[in-house]
Design brief:
Helices cover 41% and strands 22% of the residues. With 349 residues, it is of the alpha/beta class. It has 2 domains: 178 residues, Isopropylmalate Dehydrogenase (3-Layer(aba) Sandwich), CATH 3.40.718; 131 residues, Isopropylmalate Dehydrogenase. It has a 10-stranded mixed sheet with strand order 2-1-3-12-11-4-5-10-8-9, sandwiched between helices. The chain has a two-stranded antiparallel ribbon with strand order 6-7. It binds 3-isopropylmalic acid and manganese (II) ion. Manganese (II) ion binds next to α8.
């Protein structure tokens, strides 16, 4: 029995999560697995009403679940940073979800903004470190509010944190078994402390994986190649900040935020799966947002829970819908409503 903690969240989060759960239900019937789901109301909405974010007792409760399914959190009425730190980052850090896994896969060439790129050209995975770096929130102001103000923001990288991420990426690359090429994406030419450590650990761990070919690229060059030669990539490992940035670009070349999903993974704990787009306030309640990213997140979650066949079938159904039905992946332009797209995926499952 899989116990799923569902966090619909803010904005369009609840709408896309409803479609994801619809597909989950259909997959459970078809593939014969059992699950129970419970909703948790962590959100910007709740914060505005009660002042509550995610606290330690919430974390203890969530630790009893097999996985977490998250819609989106963020409310434009709340000052930037509060919900991010108090809900999303709190969950990632407190549950030690130290990997952010983001597949970049083009399902339909018509939705790719790059000229002449086919699905086989855009099919790689970014392994983003998800617990350290600039996201650690370390730093300080000096002489705040004066002309001499200094703002310091520290990138915090531990040997253990870097190593577990790099090791995960090597294992993942080996298992994925595509071209078995792992690229370290960093900035060794400027960030000479952090990326010296990353490079040394990468080279050391690489010795244990002679079957995996390794490469290095600076993050700026990586963004260039995402656009020019995305077919070069298989698995990319990078730190939290660079991973955040390059995966938004990755989402665009795979067709947009409407289709991009990710997993916050703790390989020995509770992982959390989400569409990587935000709460899209302007589309809220209109039944126009694309639920495919949220549905893909369910597919990833099921694979992670060992329901490999069901996960793959969901992806296959999404590919069919993206190829044979939708006019666009963008909100309001799909040619179908949010709920109709969910129904189409169920029909194709
Ligand atoms: C993401 C988001 C988050 C991040 C924000 C909302 C804190 O952009 O999941 O990529 O920066 O990690
Ligand atoms: Mn991001």
């Amino acid at each position: 029995m899989h116990k799923i903690a569902v966090i619909p969240g803010d904005g369009t989060g609840p709408e896309v999560v409803a479609e994801g759960m619809k597909v989950m239900e259909a997959a459970a019937k078809k593939f014969g697995f059992k699950y129970e789901a419970k909703d948790f109301d962590f959100s910007g909405q709740r914060y505005l009403k009660t002042g509550k974010l995610v606290d330690d007792s919430d974390i203890e409760e969530l630790k009893k679940y097999s996985a977490i399914y998250l819609g989106a959190v963020g409310d434009p009425r709340v000052k930037p940073g509060i919900i991010e730190a108090g809900v999303l980052l709190k969950l990632r850090f407190a549950l030690d979800q130290y990997i952010n896994l983001r597949p970049v896969k083009l399902y339909n060439a018509a939705f790719c903004p790059l000229k002449a790129k086919q699905p086989q050209d855009i099919d790689f995975v970014v392994v983003r470190e998800n617990s350290e770096g600039l996201y650690k929130g370390m730093g300080e102001f000096k002489a705040k509010g004066t002309k001499d103000e200094v703002a310091i923001q520290i990138s915090y990288n531990t040997r253990k944190g870097v190593e577990r991420c790099i090791r995960y990426a090597f294992e993942y690359c080996r298992k994925r078994n595509k071209t078995k090429k792992l690229l370290l994406c960093g900035k060794t030419n400027v960030l000479t402390y952090a990326w010296d450590l990353w490079q040394r650990v990468f080279n050391e761990v690489a010795k244990e994986y002679p079957d995996v070919a390794t490469d290095y690229a600076h993050v700026d060059a990586t963004t260039m190649w995402f656009v020019k030669n995305p077919e070069w990539f298989d698995v990319i490992v990078t730190d939290n900040m660079f991973g955040d940035i390059i995966t938004d670009l990755g989402a665009m070349i795979q067709g947009g935020l409407g289709i991009a999903a990710g997993g916050n993974i703790n390989p020995r704990g509770v992982s959390m799966f989400e569409p990587i787009g935000g709460s899209a306030p302007k589309y809220t309640g209109k039944n126009v947002i694309n639920p495919l990213a949220a549905i893909c997140a369910v597919g990833m979650m099921l694979e992670n829970l060992g329901e490999i066949e069901a996960g793959k079938a969901i992806e296959a159904a999404v590919i069919k819908v993206a190829n044979n039905k939708l006019k666009s992946l963008a909100a309001g332009k799909m040619g179908y409503s949010t709920t109709e797209v969910g129904d189409l995926v169920v029909k194709n499952l």
